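user: can you give me the structure for this one chain? tokens are fine.
assistant: on it. calling the predictor now.
[tool input]
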Amino acid sequence: METNSDFVGSNRSVVVALLLWFFFGTFGVYRMYLGKVGTGILMLILTLLAFLTFVFFIGIFIFLGLFIWWIIDLVRILKSPKMANMP
């Protein structure tokens, strides 16, 4: 399991990660930027699946799960050691 300290890699910008998180969050773009391509693609697939199944009310539950995942990732980005070293 990865820890908070390695969520934002040494060669990645926290500001860019936060901007990607805010604007393209549920599409997993910020996770791909942070080097977690597999889970980024999983978020993208789940988002598309949620849009397709929204009419059947299944998508609502998928969106709820993605929202929780999205908020947890925000906390992990904000708690990264790189964030503490920012001016």
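assistant: here you go. The chain has a mean pLDDT of 89. Residues 50 and 58 are 7 Å apart (CA to CA).
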